[in-house]
Amino acid sequence: SRDPTERALAEAIIDEMEEEGRRTLELMPGARELIQWLRAHKIPMAIVTRNTQKTTSVLTDKLLSESLGGSHFDPVIARDHGFPPKPDPTAMSAIASAWGMDLPSPSLLMVGDSYSNDVVFGMNAGVRTALLNCNR
Fold first, then answer.
1. Which among 28, 38, 39 is positioned nearest to 113, based on CA atoms?
2. What's the confidence (pLDDT) of residue 39?
3. What contacts 76, CB < 8 A, 6 or more positions away?
4. Please, which residues have CB within 8 angstroms of residue 25's CB and are 6 or more apart in sequence?
5. Are 85 and 97 in contact (CB under 8 A)?
6. What is the pTM of this model?
7. Integer Cα distance of 24 and 126 in angstroms
8. What is the DSSP string of 6-21?
9. Contacts by residues 55-60 (CB-CB < 8 Å, ≥ 24 positions apart)
10. What single DSSP character describes residue 84?
11. pLDDT, tens digit (0-9, with 9 covering 90-100), for 74-110
């Protein structure tokens, strides 16, 4: 177990980094159009992120609601929701359950920008995966 003072310092550093991320957060090119297309075709969407709910809310409430009339992601699973972090597949199991599906499933697609977190997360859950090239 970690020293509480050390843990509090680490959490403060992470919070500061996330605050900077919230100030500079932008959607990737094409994201609005993709979300509009998925909504028009009634394809459900969820979010699983290593960010906090506060940061995720900036994305869903500010950026997406302003431009698309709502976030349209359900469920949204953030770091502080108590799920093990990606690539553990527990969060994907919760999404599948919320949507009345079982895993593995060829009907689900995990889209992400990190091979080690997102693609492996999808593979561990038994769903199809797509890696976005974000020039990282």
1. 28
2. 85
3. 46, 47, 49, 53, 56, 60
4. 55, 58, 59, 63
5. no
6. 0.83
7. 34
8. HHHHHHHHHHHHHHHH
9. 55/18, 55/21, 55/22, 55/25, 58/22, 58/25, 59/25
10. P
11. 999 999 999 999 999 999 999 999 999 999 999 999 9
Among 102, 55, 100, which Cα is nearest to 77's? 55
Of the pLDDT bands very low, low, confident and very high (cuts 50, 70, 90), residue 63 is: low
Expressed in angstroms, the distance from the first to the final Cα of the chain is 33
**What is the spatial distance between Cα 35 and Cα 31, in angstroms, rounded to a whole number?**
6
At 70, is the pLDDT very low, low, confident or very high (cuts 50, 70, 90)? low
Q: What are phi and psi of 31, to 5 degrees?
A: -65, -45
C-alpha to C-alpha distance for 1 and 127, rounded to whole angstroms:
34
CA distance 135 to 130: 15
Contact 126, 103 (CB under 8 A): yes
CA gap 62, 113 in Å, rounded: 21
Apex CA 48: angle with CA 106 and CA 131, to 5°? 60
Confidence tier at 132 by pLDDT (50, 70, 90): confident
Largest pairwise CA distance in the chain: 50
